[in-house]
Amino acid sequence: MKGKYKFLLLALLIAFASCSFTSKKFEDPDKDKLLIQLITYLLDQGHFEPKDINDDFSAHVFEDYLNNVDQFKRFFYESDIKEFEAYKFKIDDEIKAYDVSFFNLTHERLLQRIAEAKTIYTDILEKPFDFTKKEDYVADYENLTYVTSKREMKERWRQQLKFSTIANYDEIISQQDSDTDDVSNLTAKEKKSIKKIEAEARLATKESIDVLYDYIEDRRRNDWFSVYINAIVEGFDPHTFYFAPEDKERFDRDISGKFEGIGARLQKKVDGIMVDEVISGGPAWRANELEVGDQILKVKQQDEKESINVVGMRLADAIKYIKGPKGTVVTLTLKKVDGTIQDISITRDIVELEETYAKSSIVEKDGKTFGIINLPKFYISFEDYNERNAASDIKQEILRLKEEGVEGLVMDLRNNGGGSLQTVVDIAGLFIEDGPVVQVKTTGEAKEVLADKDKSIVWDGPLVILVNELSASASEILAAAMQDYKRGIVIGSKQTYGKGTVQTVMDLNRMVKNNTKGDMGALKFTTQKFYRINGGSTQLEGVKSDVVVPDRYSYIDIGEKDQDNPLAWDKIDAADYEVWSNYFDFDATISKSKARMASNEQLKLIDANAQWVKKIRDRESYSLNYDIYKKEMQINEEEAKRFAKLSEYKTDLTFTSLPYEVKLMDKDSVLLEKRNRWHEALAKDVYVEEAINVLNDLKMTYAIKNKVANSVKN
């Protein structure tokens, strides 16, 4: 029940906030204007650092919105932008007046230009490209200017399409060469002609751009309006975001790891709505009739006589018919992979997304047993904290690992973007007796210290926290707390992501009395900053690893400090806490680990690879002459060969699943395959290898110090 009191308190605070917000009446008959009214009021009253809606803010929204809808500058003309610029410093006035004239103008023009562009790319791709001509393609979209004429627009599209096609062209030629041992002995008939290869490459480009246009043409006005709204709200900070109704559903699913439906991932393709994956353990998986590659033609609900044809329907709309409450039956008319038409009925149920949840493995090295727990995110059900959540799952995994006699524990938080604040406090409490975990500050109010008050400790042995540049938010809270308590050693990137802010999600429908406008969606906005118990913020600076190891993200700008208008770093007073008093010699262990890392050839190669990846990513000019293009690709391939050893690396670690999971895998081949892939990856993971070495060193320092302490007592 640990953490329940905090969840109830949060629920009360949100309910109170909702009541205070809804004391103001929001009744504009125009849904667009009503949405702006709701959002601007919330941000003004509730954001941690409200912005002045002024001319500077207006200019930022102007640039951000146009970049979002036309990033590659292949729709709008310079004349369009000049016309739009009449609003550049007036959007702030429109926001205050709940006016959407700027959006209406740009949206209508965008639809016009999108339709024109479809004709342009269709015409271009009907004619062959000349890959013998010497010309370059510049991919510096940020500094690209808008075109001034239809001729320039066609040329822009031609270059972008030719760039896509030359990659397809090279791939087809390379595939032909790899399929034949001796290409030189092929006859003219056996070998595809250059003309035919070029036509195939162009067709592949056409099919790819058609899929993109299907997505674009599926978008409705409200979808584009959401882009405009987000250009406004993201002007406050990078983590304030408007969720349209469908986006809110996805957010809830992602944060809880579950939803109600049939348990299948769908994808819209040229042929229609196709089954892309059957989720292991879900209703469709249990029924064993739905297959990857099946096309869904019609959907019928259990209480309706007629089926609804979903061919040509937007994917989001089709999903609404297919999903539904637990216990209800849906009948799907399918075009099976073999071409036959078949009706199947599936009883909807709760679908759990296994990849969201914590998983653990036993690790064996030199006769010693350790445990590793991978936590992809700090998941929770906001409707009921007692339902499955990250804290309860982590506790369960630790108890299971203890039953297997593990001597040390690795918490793998790499690529974990965060999640629930409640769960991270409860997870930290599994490793300490009691005490503060994180400090939270709301503008104009005294700081609040969130603490573990349960004196029980689930794991008191050696602990390592694995992080990288994509470990953010709740991951940073846990890593920082363990570091400040000297409870565990943090191994990973120079610093974590650097997100030190807390967001609240407000259902906008709760603010509208007698809502007849339809679902208004939700707003996620920054309401607080959190701080380490030592008083420092993780905002921008993240958590500095005790042992820094290079990885593929080392030279790529992906942190909070690289985002637009992030909140600033600051600090507050430290909380009252006591450093972990167990017999672990952290300094000696960290020193030994750093020495190992400095001489590790695999890490040197990873660092070199990260620098090479950075160079490739920063490249902005490409030749559209195939001979030159091919030589450049060959140079890249030669450079890449020296990094082939990265995938060949093998540790001496052995990984096995816990007994309870072995039983599950006897009945679930998909789970078995996923765990086998995970274990194979772990066995090649130099970071996990070093984490186990550190655990072993910590264990040894514990044994030595404990022995010395006992000798002194005697």
Describe it:
This is Carboxyl-terminal processing protease. Keywords: Hydrolase, Protease, Serine protease, Signal. Belongs to the peptidase S41A family. GO terms for molecular function: endopeptidase activity; serine-type peptidase activity. One of its GO terms (biological process) is signal transduction. The protein is α+β, with helices and mostly antiparallel strands and 714 residues long. The protein has 3 domains: 184 residues, no CATH class; 95 residues, Pdz3 Domain (Roll); 341 residues, 2-enoyl-CoA Hydratase, Chain A, domain 1 (Alpha-Beta Complex), CATH 3.90.226. Helix content is 44%, strand content 16%. The chain is built from 22 helices and 22 strands. It has a 7-stranded mixed beta sheet, with helices on both faces. The chain starts with a helix and ends with a helix. The N terminus and C terminus are likely disordered.
Secondary structure elements and pairings:
Blueprint lengths: L3 H18 L9 H16 L8 H15 L8 H7 L6 H7 L3 H24 L11 E3 L11 H30 L14 H25 L2 H13 L7 E3 L1 H12 L1 E4 L2 E6 L2 E7 L4 H5 L7 E7 L6 E2 L5 H8 L6 E7 L5 E7 L1 E4 L6 E7 L2 E7 L15 H14 L5 E4 L8 H8 L6 E7 L6 E5 L10 E5 L6 H11 L4 E4 L8 E7 L14 E10 L15 E2 L37 H13 L2 H18 L2 E3 L2 H16 L3 H4 L5 E3 L2 H9 L1 H14 L3 H28 L1
Parallel strand pairs: 12-13, 13-16, 16-17, 17-20
Antiparallel strand pairs: 1-21, 2-19, 3-10, 4-5, 5-6, 6-7, 6-8, 8-9, 11-12, 11-22, 14-15, 14-19, 18-19
Helix pairs in contact: 3-9, 6-7, 7-8, 13-14, 14-15, 16-22, 20-21
